[in-house]
Amino acid sequence: MNLDFTYWKKHTDGWRGLTVRKFIISIISLALLLMGGVNVSAAAAPPQTMYKVYVDGALASSNAIIKNGSTIVPFKNVFLAMGFMIQYDAKTRTVRAKKAGTTITLTVGVKRGFLNGKMKTLPVAPEAINNTTYIPLRFVGESMGCIIEVDTPGHAIYIDLPVVSETTAAPEPTPVPAAELTPIPTTEPLPTASNSSSTELTTKQVTVINDKKVVMLEMVDSQGSAVSLGQGLFLTNYHVIDGQTSGNVIETNGTSYLIGGVAAYNESLDLAIVKVQNYTKAWEAVQIGNPDELEKGDRVVAIGSPRGVQNTVSEGVVSNFTKQDGVNYIQISVPIDHGSSGGGLFNMKGELVGITSAGIDDSNADLNFAISIKDAQVLLGKINGRMFNDIAVTPLASLIPTQPAVQPVTHPAPSDSTEQTRVIVTQALNETVTQIPTSVVNLQLGEWESFVTNDGVIAIFNQMGTYDYKTYLDYYPTIQNQVYYWAKSIGDAIYSHFPDKKISMGIYFEFTFNTYPSAFDPSEITPVAGGYKVTHFFAGINIDGGVDVFVRP
């Protein structure tokens, strides 16, 4: 059967006697819709000449611009067409794209970017133009080894992605023969506290000792840091790997190693030990220190990868000691940021005393925290003295909690009343279906509303808010199937109780553009005072002798 949502358009305004919550946004940027919250109030309108961008022959965008000799393109569509996974930090206006070991980080208004953690100068800074974030195409293309051709008379740009053949692809690393394997270094008990300052090193010396022992973790939808425990095992924060299905350990030289699984973890302590899939080298381990030696005012050094800038070194002092929910924290003035999680905090002997874990963003004070290495002793005890091949792992994907099938309808069906069915289903949805659960993020829903059409169809609808819809778009390639099966489980549950009813459900987003939003279907666009209102349904469930589901961006 075909889904028919045409009546949504007809009944968007003035549903019969119902109070329908209309979350109409009077001034909303396309950047907020597509990547989240970019301030475009001062942005200038683009030139009249727009270029089409083709990636491997397929149209990716119709809105590229050649400005001051540099080609800039809308980042989202072009990155997706090139096969990147993308993330957007609305607070810092930072775009992060990842594909096959390549990570690109760009920030609106900043004329420098980062390629695999290394700073690069850009020809022009990314900017927000007419509600869209534009990035320099040349930098992105060269980072991926693409061939870029500009057809000025034809107003077209062609991007040819590099072809990796099986004969030229780099071979998989050969595992080290078993005879060369050595036991994991023993790290307990902690050294006896001495409080002696005679052996203090400089920040540079601490860095030289530990820089190569701290790595960056590139997960499917997150990025963090970790410290080497030797022989392919790395200690990090649990929240860095939580909800992830795969990831890589990346050394300072850019070498990447696939994570084989989790050797030990404690979610309550926010600590985990990950193990690489293949033993290919003799990794050097950090030296474990005793946090009890630390006192307020003592100098400490942190090494991590904040915002993907690999192995950034920062220094500060111990500010305080605290314990919350059974976790021992070292409060530090050392600057850390998103991506620093899982990095190492070292004393001035060059010993690991903590795992950098958290900070309070909305504060002028340096309120940053590291989990004391004392809390990791139980986890470390599970690997001490053991051989690499003898350490079993838990697959990353198995740590993702299984979402139970949604059963929104718990009331018996009324005898012959479509109106009673509408009331029962709507009430059950509002009681039990308040979000869309995924492995990446839980998307919050609004209130479920409903009415009965003239032809007896129960129409049920839900308007998702601005923030959650842009999050849905950001993660759509990852969560598309999860959202589909979530919707299917709801449809199946309702159909099992009311198989003789016709019910159409839709989740939508509504907003107003000040210019014509050509990216949307004309049937979704209504001219209004001051702009164009778009009512866009991106998920639907149709129940009519069976269950059909539709999910789209």
From TrEMBL:
Copper amine oxidase-like N-terminal domain location: 62-158
Q: Which residues form a coiled coil?
A: none
Q: Which Gene3D superfamilies match?
A: 2.40.10.120, Copper amine oxidase-like, N-terminal domain
Region (Disordered) spans which residues? 169-201
Keywords from the named record: Hydrolase, Protease, Serine protease
What parts of the sequence cross the membrane?
Answer: none
- Lineage top rank: taxon: Bacteria
Give the Low complexity compositional bias ranges.
169-193
Q: What is this protein called?
A: Trypsin-like peptidase domain-containing protein
Q: What is the lineage of its organism?
A: Bacteria, Bacillati, Bacillota, Bacilli, Bacillales
